[in-house]
Amino acid sequence: MTSELRSELLQLLRTQAYREGDFTLSSGQKSSYYINCKPVTLSARGALLVGRLLLAELPPSTQAVAGLTLGADPIVTAVSVVSAYEYPPAAQLPALIIRKETKSHGTRAYIEGPVLPAGTEIAVLEDVVTTGGSALKAVERLREAGYGVKLVLGIVDRDCGGQELFANHGLDFKALFTIGEFQTR
Hints:
5-phospho-alpha-D-ribose 1-diphosphate binds at residues 99-100, 103, 105, 126-134. It catalyses: orotidine 5'-phosphate + diphosphate = orotate + 5-phospho-alpha-D-ribose 1-diphosphate. The chain is of the alpha/beta class. Helix content is 38%, strand content 27%. It has one domain: 3-Layer(aba) Sandwich (Rossmann fold), CATH 3.40.50. The chain contains seven helices and eight strands; from the N terminus they run αββααβαβββαβαβα. A six-stranded mixed beta sheet has the order 5-4-3-6-7-8, sandwiched between helices. The model has no long low-confidence stretch (mean pLDDT 94).
């Protein structure tokens, strides 16, 4: 079943998220291709597939999921909602959204979502990992808030240094797909 869901998600991403051309990435790097997962992660079927597949990759010790806005917003929400269907109430995973900049009013919070106890083990989710800088920013904000982060889980790994960056910060990294799986189809 998981392999069927994985194949379906890869096909959606390949047809709706992957584009070839001349692009500048958020890291500043130039690229001959671009992957924008939002058309898939913001669709009903895509969100369900992402939620189910990423949830299946999380270690049992995971207590919440989080990610840097905007790419991770639909992903963490999908995983959280799917956990509500697949887990008993005590094991369901809340979602946190990490702002890029502090909120300019009210509480001036970086982290949106339920307040969780210090030490809560949180997995950081990401759509596309290039250098890993965006996910690492989320990890740093979560750690500064007292949460435990050991894993970054992505949809696509562009194989451009993210894995190495995460390892240097004591993080495990997994992705559902590598860029090679896009470019060989």
